[in-house]
Amino acid sequence: MSLDNQINQLLEPIAELSIAIIFYSITIFDVDIPLIVIWLICASLFFTFYFNWLNIRGFKHALKVIKGDYSSSADPGEVSHFQALTTALSGTVGLGNIAGVAIAVSIGGPGATFWMIVAGILGMATKFLECSLGVKYRIIDKDGQVHGGPMYYLRDGLKEIGYAKTGKLLAVIFAICCVVASLCGSNMLQSNQAYQQFMVAFGSDDSFWSGKGWLFGSILALLVGIVIIGGIKSIAQVTSKIVPFMAFVYLCSCTFILFYHLPEIPTAFGLIIHGAFDPNGVAGGIIGVMIQGFKRATFSSEAGVGAASIAHAAATTKEPIREGYVALIEPFIDTVVICTLTALVIVITGSYQTTQADGVALTSQAFASVIWWFPYLLSVAVLLFALSTMISWAYYGSIAWQYLVGENKAMSLLYKLIFCLFTIIGASISLQSVIDISDSMFFSMAIANIIGLYLLAPMIKKDLKVYQQKYTKKK
User: Fold this and answer.
1) What is the tens place of the pLDDT at every residue in 405-444?
2) Is 383 contained in some domain?
3) Is residue 46 assigned to a domain?
4) Which of 57, 116, 161, 375 is 20 to 30 Å from 260 by CA-CA measure?
């Protein structure tokens, strides 16, 4: 029995247990709806209306901030607005946009795309709130290193409004979930799908690489380890270069395929709209398709999960609200743009109907249906997606780890070594086991985070009003 198979047998029971716990479902119209998805979508809806559709109204100002119109080198922080955005995007623009979208379309049909877009737009308001809080309650130590994120705004923010004990408990719960999610969710899935795409493009069942996911994972772990040892500044420098490049390569590839099928684009959009509201559709009709779209969009954009606020907390700014504006752009780029293009490629080529492939392999076959060598190009994009996501999540996990065990160089190094070990394990196990563990660990972070968001939203609403008054006067 190969090492990969042995790892699979060990982790499959863990995957089944974890998915059963976090994805406890209720049945509505014969469709099982995970409570955690309802929890996230309700929060996105509430904050969208609570902030009066700031996700739409604030778009123009957000672009100005990212461009650097309000930047000052005298402001506290470690990285620029753009670097904070690319670091956070590198944690979200990953294989969820390729493998996750393929899974949603293969299960929910083309209509899942529509609900992914809706969930992405709604998630912009949640991102604004949690990242504004990330800067508002961050801590900058004597060495200039920033510590921020849900652990800090749950602990200090809730203490400020009279919920000190609740805040401490929620902060610890979030930190534990974040550490586990960084190891299992946004690490193992990336290495797994990078290996699968590598096998599709460069290998076969008879090749040297067959059954050697552990070896591929070891090489990937080495590359990740080299970057994450340097901390947030090193990570920001790498992601600010990788993210624009990988997005450009992938978007150009998708655009080429869509132009190749240009006459069929209206038909593809028709399938998406019809599938979104077809009561007799796959995966349980309208409700089933909606849940598939919401689930994948939430995984992709991470709105409500809180992790991105860890990256945004390091931004050079003295205005927490300003960084919130930057953050609301993330779900738009990640879900509304990139996920939609991926879904269109899969739908317009008909690949979801003609193959039994899943995850990134399905997207790869859609690419190959146009030009045979496109899977090689996709392999480059997948590898960059995987690397950037793992690098960002290694940082998220390290901040949560430091919150739990304290600042200690030896303990920090231990976490990074464990992270690299899980990279190897992820490349060695089956896709379903990875998805189950990934989803359960990832979404578990949202439970504590969203409780805090509801309680702290009034404070940010007051800060937003003050900020808008200043901005209006300047304008």
Assistant:
1) 887 778 888 888 888 888 888 777 665 666 666 667 677 7
2) yes
3) no
4) 116
Amino acid letter for position 81: H
Domain assignment present for 10:
no
Strand partners, 33: 26
**Domain range spanning residue 300?**
77-464
Please state the three-class secondary structure of the chain as a single string. CCHHHHHHHHHHHHHHHHHHHHCCEEEECCEEEEHHHHHHHHHHHHHHHHCCCHHHHCHHHHHHHHHCCCCCCCCCCCECHHHHHHHHHHHHCCCHHHHHHHHHHHHHCCHHHHHHHHHHHHHHHHHHHHHHHHHHCCEECCCCCEECCHHHHHHHHHHHCCCHHHHHHHHHHHHHHHHHHHHHHHHHHHHHHHHHHHHHHHCCCCCCCCCCHHHHHHHHHHHHHHHHCCHHHHHHHHHHHHHHHHHHHHHHHHHHHHHHCHHHHHHHHHHHHHHHCCCCCCCCHHHHHHHHHHHHHHHHHCCCCCCHHHHHCCECCCCHHHHHHHHCHHHHHHHHHHHHHHHHHHHHHCHHHHCCCCCHHHHHHHHHCCCCCHHHHHHHHHHHHHHHHHHHHHHHHHHHHHHHHCCCHHHHHHHHHHHHHHHHHHCCCCHHHHHHHHHHHHHHHHHHHHHHHHHHHHHHHHHHHHHHHHHHHHC
Domain harbouring 453, CATH code:
1.20.1740.10
Residue identified by tokens 């809706």 is 118
Express each pLDDT in 126-150 by its tens digit.
999 999 999 999 988 777 778 889 9
Taking the C-alpha atoms of residue 312 and residue 327, their distance in angstroms, rounded to an integer, is: 8
Does residue 276 lie in a domain region?
yes
pTM, 2 dp: 0.82
Contact of 66 with 327, CB cutoff 8 Å: no
